[in-house]
Amino acid sequence: YNQANANYTEAADDSNTTSEQLEALRADKEEKKQIKDQLADAKEPLRADKEEKKQIKLQLSDEKYDAKMDKVDAHLSYLTWRTAGITILLMCITYAAFVGLGGFLNSIYPDEVSHDDHGYGGDDHEHHGSGSPIVFSLGVMLFLMGFPSFQGTLGNLLSGVEANLGDLGLSMLGLTVLTAGVANWWREDLPFIGNHEQIATSDPFQGQHIRKAGLWVFIMSEVMVFATFFSSYLRMRTEWCTGWQVNAGNCEEVNMLTASDFLRP
After folding, report:
1. Helix axis angle, 2-13 relative to 19-107, nearest 10°?
2. What is the Cα–Cα distance from 152 to 158, expressed in whole angstroms?
3. φ, ψ for residue 109, nearest 5 deg
4. Taking the model in full, what pTM does it have?
5. Domain extents for the chain?
6. H or E segment and range at residue 213
7. Most CB atoms within 10 A, among 65, 123, 155, 175?
8. At what angle do helices 132-145 and 169-189 cross, to 10 degrees?
9. What is the largest CA-CA distance in the chain?
10. How many other CB atoms are found less than 10 A from the CB of residue 146?
11. List of the chain residues with pLDDT < 70
């Protein structure tokens, strides 16, 4: 059609072209135009079919993406509930171990200690010291020694990755020793009701019950330990300068220093 149109235009501009030739070229042009329109009409269903297939493809792509995201969400939900379930299970097992072992040890404790004027009768004995804290500390040490492998193995188990359960051995041994130490401590201390408790005889706690003084010392030590943790956290998060950096002249502006910088010689 384009060629026929060009021929007709060229002939119309040529003064030597006769009217018969011009009419023949016009007729050829119209014929080619009709053929072009017929081809366009024939292509229209194909174009519509192509658009329909494109829409179907996009729809399938969206459905495939939604299905993939649903699978991901389901997997994440599974991991969340699995992790929560395992955590709750471990907490229940630990609590049951403490209660069960402590109850068992209490059940085999001699009856004459817990009876006879409620445990503080005529031949009352002074509350003795206990070696359980040493056992407890040993269990904590063993647990922390194996904690890196323990943590990695649990992470693999929670992620569904193959893990070597043997790596749990040292930490589980530590937890067992720790549980035994706490249970034995419980067995020794549970029947004690506080009568004839030792009294501190030296300053600064003179005249106070030894357990009360011990609790004060414990609270003070907790304050110091957590103050150290919090000061280190604030130092990192706020990018405070340390005393060493200040003395070296590496800090342009010093707004605040932590307590450890003032205590350091």
Report:
1. 150
2. 10
3. -70, 135
4. 0.33
5. 1-108, 110-118+127-196, 208-265
6. helix 210-238
7. 175
8. 160
9. 148
10. 19
11. 1-2, 4, 8, 11-18, 22, 102-103, 105-129, 189-197, 235-240, 254-265
